[in-house]
Specification:
With 439 residues, the chain is α+β, with helices and mostly antiparallel strands. Among the domains are: 122 residues, no CATH class; 168 residues, Orthogonal Bundle (Phosphatidylinositol 3-kinase Catalytic Subunit, Chain A, Domain 5), CATH 1.10.1070.20. A hairpin with a 3-residue loop joins strand 9 and strand 10. The mean pLDDT is 94.
Length: 439
Amino acid sequence: MIITLQTFVSDRWFDAAEVSFEQPDAGFLAGATVSYDVDYFAEKGAVEFADERPVTDFRAVSFKYPLSLADKRTPRWPPFLLDLLPQGHARIRLAKALGLPPDSRASDLPLLMRSGGSTIGNVRIKEAAEQEAKRLQGVIRTGLALDDILDRTDLFVEVVDKHAMIASGSSGLQGEWPKVALTLAKDGLYYPDPLVADDEAVEHLIVKLKRGGDIDGLILKTEAVYSQVAARIGLHVYAPSTAGNGTMIIPRFDRYVDERGRTARVGQESMTSAVGVSDFGHIDAHERYVEIVKAYSADPQADVLEYLKRDATNLAMGNPDNHGRNTAMSKYSDGAARLSPLYDFAPMKLADDVIARSTKWRCMQDKGSDYAPDWSRVCDAVSGDGIDGTALAEGLVAFADALEAAPAVAIEEGALAEAVEQATVRCSDVVEALRRAVR
């Protein structure tokens, strides 16, 4: 089976590459070959290629797949496709609707084709988009007011449920929490994203829904507060989230309406994909992800410092859920790549399930203290290749005061005091460790 990958470049979709699957029934565990379209290569990358300057920016389907005329085969699916493949709640619900076993690898390709027409970022599957357009023909859309979303009204539930199986993003995006992609149209109402054309879009949102009981509801509400806290202490937040009745509205940072009134798409690639891993539940080292930042960021010094601040903040604020799909790189239309704005920052320490950090500092392995890093050692480990380790350490020391205030800021912004106290029990220790980063 062969699919066509399209990239959104210069205000429109281009046929960029083909992916040939060797054993479709084996899912992402089987081999595949990526081949760039000759005309696309000639138009978008031939000049740089001739100058031996690899094109890995928003024009490429992945950092690991620079524009080239050479076919690239891998023993598993190319890693970036796993960023598009539904997981968690989305996979279970969509597989059930399609009559597929959720845990079977044979379900991977049908699920990819059902979800790949309206994706996060600027890469989509052409055939999936065409199939979706056919499914949506004649569909009468029902709009939602903002209060419908925040209050999780019967109308909101009906609209989401009605479109869940026909519109990409309406049955949930990647992750264990149910999510729905909504777009504000010029008529002032919100609709499932694929039902709103680019020329009538005003704003793009992801709505995250409560999974189950009271603890999940508390985590969701506090996650919205945490986004406000992160912004106030100086982390890179695109825009704070808003909590509702079992819902949380997240402004999308991969799409926006530009100054010309046109919908722009920002490329996104998870760290797991960027390091070339075709798997889920992957365990890795922070140092590997930092190497991606150093290799591709337009401002690696600033982004590496931001990365370190985020890890310290996760430790201090009780968020151990730091796998490689919870951090990404954004690829902008000017050719620059940067560490994506912060997302999935929540007090997961409050969850009933025990969640361990899946990304750890390799440089702390001999000390067995990833949960209490020596930040001076960390700065040394990630320095070099143009990164000033001393400046990183000084930046962490300067950040300590802001992080120390974060629990109080969370309560001030409306978080339940008992929840904050439980989640941030290690905050003081993390802050003191940051203050020792400069020796």
